[in-house]
Amino acid sequence: MIILYKEPRWDALRATLFGKFYEAIVANYFKYVRKFEVYDQGIAVYVDWLDDIERLRKRIEEIRREDIKKLYGIEEKDLEKIQERFERDINDLKKENEKLKKKGKEGRRFNPDLVVEKEGKFYVVEMQVWPVWLKQRHRSAKLTWDIVQDEGVAIIPRILASKVKVQGKVHDVTGFYYVSLSRSQDHEKIERFFKELTKRDLKIWYLEDIVRESKNYDWFKFLLGKVRREVIDLIDKLEQGKVKIA
After folding, report:
1. H runs (alpha helix) in 103-217
2. Which of 81, 188, 193, 235 is the most buried (most CB within 10 A)?
């Protein structure tokens, strides 16, 4: 019987491998299934384009007047926690931004994972798929209110961007698309809350749904074929006593 020492964590190995190509699945899904134009280079959101704190506070006060427990499934303390997180992150970003500009440098910016466009409407896409890590911290990889509040993920504060630069041109942001692994019972309430907060279109997409919709497309099979060949080639070389990584 062979005993392995320092045996790999197989769930982490699978997650790491998947993490290297799932963004390609999402990008091609938007292109070939949803018929968007897809931009993955030359895209940026500047801190100057984030809504300011006063506007954020005004919108939160409007939400506070509603029945937040019924509409969003959150308590007053949850709303306060969200507000504190947004304000802290925005303040930190604005301070960093001003320091850079005083030094004569370009202001602080984000580079989104994707920008997709259809009929002249531009959407910023952020992808965060961390199944093993989230499961360790939250006992679930599904996107819940707890994860949104505790981790912030990509939706804070980029969700407040009003403009995006695409290949040298600046466009108004129509909405924000956030990609997570799998749907939780909090889905509709999270989506509804952030739509109200941003006053822009917002949609949460789930990789499990994207893969299910994509599995019969030629581009999807082609991509998986390329991944399979790369992995097999690595293993073949290891069996020959060679390490082929770069």
Report:
1. 131-138, 145-151, 187-198, 207-214
2. 193
How many Å apart are CA 194 and CA 96, to the nearest integer?
A: 25
113 occurs within a structural domain: yes
Neighbours of 170 (CB within 10 A): 12
pLDDT tens profile 130-140:
777 777 777 77
Number of residues that this document lists for the chain = 246
Q: Which tens digits make up the pLDDT trace of 50-88?
A: 988 898 899 999 999 989 888 888 889 888 988 888 888
Token digits of residue 2: 């062979």
| Separation of alpha carbons 187 and 61, rounded Å | 23
User: Quick check: pTM over 0.85?
Assistant: yes
Could you tell me if residue 225 is inside a domain?
no
* Number of domains within the chain: 1
